[in-house]
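Sharing a chain and its predicted structure for anyone who wants a worked example. Both blocks are below, sequence first, tokens second.
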Amino acid sequence: APLPMPYRGARTAPMLDPGDPLTVVRFFNDLDRMFRRSRIDDDTERLDYTLSYIPNELWRQWQALALLPESSTYDGFKRLVLGLYPEVDAQPFVSFERYEQLVAYGVQRQFTSLESYSAFYRDYYPLTASLVARADLTVRAASGNLLSMLGPEVHAAVKSRLSVRYPDHHRLNPWPLADVNAAIVWTLLRPPEQHPPSPLPSPAALIRTVGPSLSFVAPTTPSPPITASADPPPSPLLLASVINSHTPVPSPPPAHPVTSRHCPAPVPPPSVPSHPSPAADLATHVPDVTHVSGCHYCGKPDCWIRDCPEAQHDVATGLCRRRLDGRLVLSDGRFVPRSLPGSCMRDRV
């Protein structure tokens, strides 16, 4: 049986906000659903119900529109009213421009808490999933951009979680957006002390200097201070007796080697220091290190690896990652092999 239409001002009556154009669209959607439920098909009756539900500040305007020839039917009146609110469709929710603005905000924010990240992801996922479904965005870009919005410590912990959770994942394949989000939530749910430890050594544990020589400075403990002995000085009479009683013993003459015409004197072996200098021994094994001008990652002469845009792009897309000490490594944590062909690191990634 059809349900009766609600009265104006009733709790179930459709409502709209004159200051919010989006509520006008939802107002007509609610009306259409009520007309179908109440089985009202007459255009005049539909127009009467429509004018009865609108607030007073819009009633005179819409009543004047209902008298126009274009409003002879309910659908014509609906199109005429919605045409007065073009801003509803001027900025669609699913657009690449809005996605870029959302990514720029997330990169600047650098999320480190679950509350702020969850509030952002509720806006990020519907827009990103819609763009991926329309083939306007790739999964690699969506996941890489999401990882670039994390702080350095959270980013390293998330990559470690993904490597442990999916050990067979190839480094060239993109991470699914759902897996990246699950790893981020898992990381942010735990305090920093519960994150898996980073395999990277501490930069302060080893200081390496590359130049004419190679030296390693290890932390040392301070030596204890030297204190003077508390024994009393010897007596002068005792010293004199010891000196007078000492008789110098002449040293025997040096033995000359026995030589003959048939037995020449043996040649003494070259003197080799028993304890060679560590620095000299280490310097003989250090290859000649020459400084290559330009960026070691992209090879451009006017670029530097710390600020290389190509490196930042590859980190964002997941081809490589930057360690805590600033070095670029592969996505699985291994160093870029030098045995592969290529003039720079990017050719070998």
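Comments welcome. The first strand starts at residue 207 and ends at 209.
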